[in-house]
Fold this sequence. Notes:
By secondary structure, the chain is of the alpha+beta class. The chain folds into 2 domains: 2-207, no CATH class; 213-303, no CATH class. Helices cover 50% and strands 16% of the residues. It is built from 10 helices and 4 strands; from the N terminus they run αβαβββαααααααα. The chain has a 4-stranded mixed sheet with strand order 1-2-3-4. Helix 2 links the parallel strand 1 (22-29) and strand 2 (68-79). The longest helix is centred in the middle third of the chain and has 25 residues, at 138-162.
Amino acid sequence: MKQILFTLSLLIITVSSNAQEINCKAIVMADQIQGVDPKVFKTLEKSLGDFVNSRKWTNDNFETKEKIECVFTLILSKPIDGVEGGYTGKLNIQATRPVYNSTYSSTMVNYVDNDVAIKFDQYQSLDFNDNRITGTDALSSNLTALIAYYTYIILALDYDSYSLKGGTEFYGKAQNIVNNAPESKVIMGWKATENQRNRYWLVDQATNSRFAEMRTLFYKYHRLGLDQFSTDAELARNTMNDIFPMLERVNTDNPSSVLLRFFFYAKSDEIQNFLAKTSMVDKQKIIPILAAIDVSNAAKYQALLK
Length: 306
């Protein structure tokens, strides 16, 4: 009996020590693709979920309640000419983080990447190696490179939200993917010269000293702000109020940056809900700042002044 209990204990320890960090739901939408068995896309959906959920992305152990919830929605729009199993489309990335001592989850990522070009063979498993990102087939490798890149971004943000600049390692891993990304004439999103709001610039700005205050405010927003509402609501609210002048300074130095856009895609609704419960005095200070930075949501912020 003792031997059995000892064996069971070792099994539990082994399972716990290998607990993965991500609880990912993968969705593949391919209604616009004609002439391909729908089972191929169901296989792709399962393969993507398994790829993220079964891989150990960090050296830390996560309890089930600590796992990061995310959704990858791959929307395929058309086949790539001359490439069997090749498709272009876009990827919607969503991720949340639980707020301490509450039932509320804060949105960390709500972003659409429009530069997706991939190849999928339903009879081969998805493979990724941080040291050999390009693989033997650029389009096949681009699929896993894309998913790994955003998984590392999600991890970086999650770690940054719990400790000041705690996600540095994962930003480094995402940057490594950018530096060694697969190349072909149809692959986009990895190069600085393509546009100012792609994967290259997102991780470049996240790790650039010019944007250092963004990572500080991200920590203050979550760990010293949202997480503290259950214990000291007034202090938490004052901390949150301090976030907005920080955002203003970042925007003044780096107007219309992709990192700020990335932040507001995730946080604009949450910020509006926060402001709805603040005093009119605070609203009058904060809302002009937000309206100038997050122009697409300016009308929603300004409506709170009425």
